[in-house]
Amino acid sequence: MSNVSPHVFPTYDFSLPMFVRGEGAYVYTEEGNRYIDLTSGIGVTCMGHSHPALVATLQEQSTQLWHLSNLFTDGRQERVAARLCEHSHAEQVFFCNSGSEAIEASIKLARRYFQQRGQSERYRIVAARHSFHGRTMTAIAASGQKKLTDGFAPLPSGFDHITFGVLEEADRALTAHTAAVLIEPIQGEGGIHVADDVYLQGLATLCQQRGCLLIVDEVQCGMGRSGKLFAHQWSAIKPNIIAMAKGLGGGFPVGACLADKQTAQGFTKGSHGSTFGGNPLAMAVADKVLELLFAKDFLPTMMGNAKKLHDGLTQLCQTYPQILHPWRGKGLMIGLPCVIGNHHVIEAFHQNNVLAVPAGCNVVRLLPPLTITAEVIAESLTAMDKACAQLARDNQHLKQSNKHSGA
User: Fold this and answer.
1) How many domains does the chain have?
2) Does residue 246 carry a catalytic annotation?
3) What pLDDT digit, counting tens, does each position of 200-214 carry?
4) Quick one: angle between helices 76-86 and 280-293, nearest 10?
5) CATH code of 390's domain
6) Is 261 helix (H, G, I), strand (E, B) or coil?
7) Residue range(s) defining the domain that contains residue 167
């Protein structure tokens, strides 16, 4: 069933039934059919759909202030910034509306930081191939993915690309013209590749030795998805700049660029801005999301449930090696590398009322809400097992058919 509208650009494949409401980890169609949402809007609805506290917060704020512009302040930006700084090594925050904008701000800040220091020759950004940093021209230039850049030449210049996880390439790529290294601690769109501690710590050391900045893209892997506020915190590194968005608003559009105080000096009055960035609606919701996330038992409970999902997926991958390779990921950011086309697995999941999304390297990506319960995880695993069993039967029938036909 397709929901493509004749009045909407055909940039998306609306191939599922139309969903009209959501609650927790479930979404519902007009007909009342229920699906388990293991996508969270691609890592956005971290507290699940229609979380009562977030609904109440947005409703209350909507009766007070919607928008002021950044010519004025109502104090909410400072509260959210203080929460983020308290739980990281960052000291200052710039608010925007999306992950792409957070990346743009990060790259602009890195370049201007050196320009302010009289080192305008340091402007190049080293980034990983097959990364994903957003959809703006600068972000796709940083990505190193042809599928993102095809048709958009000429691209912004100043980007050098390395292989993710290979420290020796980073060492060779850093020059006197390098302003910063931009890296995802866990590649999302690229196929759920987790950077190990040695790699991230090595990058941090190289940046320090060469006098350049380290930018981490935590847009998808941040906001508790790995089990800590930021995925890079597992490696105990201190990047100069952090880009974040997605889960920060729990579904409401909001992004942020965080930096230590020295790096943040690259931005001065009028050097960067955002019309809607840090608006009262976004700040009210983000403040409540962070309050929920930082509650004493939230992340330990989440990681306990994540372990149940991990264990179940390990069994699933062992049971159906003709369909799935062993899973990879961290916390509730999980990739299922597929033996067959990942679109077949995703479709089978959908047919069994489980929503998943694709990623690079023929991976099925699972990004459940951080609030998913053990009961819903069990329900999900049962449905995925049913889907894989059907795929295994179909695969066997196809092999037998090809054998009999001489194919």
Assistant:
1) 2
2) yes
3) 999 999 999 999 999
4) 30
5) 3.90.1150.10
6) helix
7) 52-293
